[in-house]
Write a structure and sequence with these properties.
The structure holds two protein chains of two kinds. Chain A is mostly beta strands. Chain A is built from no helices and eleven strands. Chain A starts with a strand and ends with a strand. By secondary structure, chain B is mostly beta strands. Chain B has no helices and eleven strands. The chains are: A mainly beta, B mainly beta.
C-alpha cells in the first residue's frame, strides 16, 4: 500500500489566490512527513518537514502545512500565490525502518496571471 | 558550497551499452540514494546506502547496480540499458537516515534508444 497519496496531479490558481495541495498518508508511516518542491529543470529541495510537536509547520517561501492525525492528512497551503511558486510539489514519508523515503506522485502547480 | 553533483547531466545511449552515472556529495553525509522520476509516478527509489560498503535495494532496483566504496561517491551503473530505463535520475544524500532532509543533485536525463 502506498505510504502517501497526493490528490490532484495538476492544480491551477490565480496569482494572489490561496494555494492548497493535498496529501494523505497511511497510518503505518512514522510521524515524519515532508514536502519537497521541484522548480523546472532542477532537483528537489525541502519546503518543510513535520516531526513531532506543533502540528502546524512553517516552511520556506510562505508555505505551511498542518499535520492532522484524525484525517491522516498533511496538506500544503499558502495564503497568496506568486508566479514564482509555479513548480511541482511532492509529499514524502519515510518507511517504518527510516531507511527509505516514499514520495507521492506529485502535484504540478500553475499560477495564472 | 554544500552540494550534490551528478554527471553527466544528459545522456543518450543505445540498448545494451554499459553506462555509469556518477554522484558525489561534499557534506560528509552517511546516507545516499538514487531515484528515478517518471511522469505521473513521482520519484521511485532505486538503491540506497546507509554508509560505506552498505547498499540496499529500493523499490525499483532491477537493471541497476550501485557501489559505495567511499563516503562521498555513489555511482549508478546500468550494465545493459534498455529503453524502459529512459528516465530522469536523481541522486540525493542526507545526514544519516531517511528522517533527515535529503539534498538532491540536479538530475541526469537518460535516453536509451
Amino acid at each position: 500500500a502506498q505510504s502517501v497519496t497526493q490528490l490532484g496531479s495538476h492544480v491551477s490558481v490565480s496569482e494572489g489566490a490561496l494555494v492548497l495541495l493535498r496529501c494523505n498518508y497511511s497510518s503505518s508511516v512514522p510521524p515524519y512527513l515532508f514536502w519537497y518542491v521541484q522548480y523546472p529543470n532542477q532537483g528537489l529541495q525541502l519546503l518543510l518537514k513535520y516531526t513531532t510537536g506543533a502540528t502546524l509547520v512553517k516552511g520556506i517561501n510562505g508555505f505551511e502545512a498542518e499535520f492532522k492525525k484524525s484525517e491522516t492528512s498533511f496538506h500544503l497551503t499558502k495564503p497568496s500565490a506568486h508566479m514564482s511558486d509555479a513548480a511541482e510539489y511532492f509529499c514524502a514519508a519515510p518507511t517504518g525502518s527510516a531507511r527509505q523515503l516514499t514520495f507521492g506522485s506529485g502535484t504540478q502547480l500553475t499560477v495564472l496571471p | 558550497e554544500a552540494q550534490v553533483t551528478q554527471n553527466p547531466r544528459y545522456l543518450i545511449t543505445v540498448t545494451g551499452k554499459k553506462l555509469t552515472v556518477t554522484c558525489s556529495q561534499n557534506m560528509n553525509h552517511e546516507y545516499m540514494s538514487w531515484y528515478r522520476q517518471d511522469p505521473g509516478l513521482g520519484l521511485r527509489q532505486i538503491y540506497y546506502s546507509m554508509n560505506v560498503e552498505v547498499t540496499d535495494k529500493g523499490d525499483v532496483p532491477e537493471g541497476y547496480k550501485v557501489s559505495r566504496k567511499e563516503k562521498r561517491n555513489f555511482p549508478l551503473i546500468l550494465e545493459s540499458p534498455s529503453p524502459n530505463q529512459t528516465s530522469l535520475y536523481f541522486c540525493a544524500s542526507s545526514l544519516s537516515t531517511s528522517l533527515n532532509e535529503q539534498y538532491f543533485g540536479p538530475g541526469t536525463r537518460l535516453t536509451v534508444t
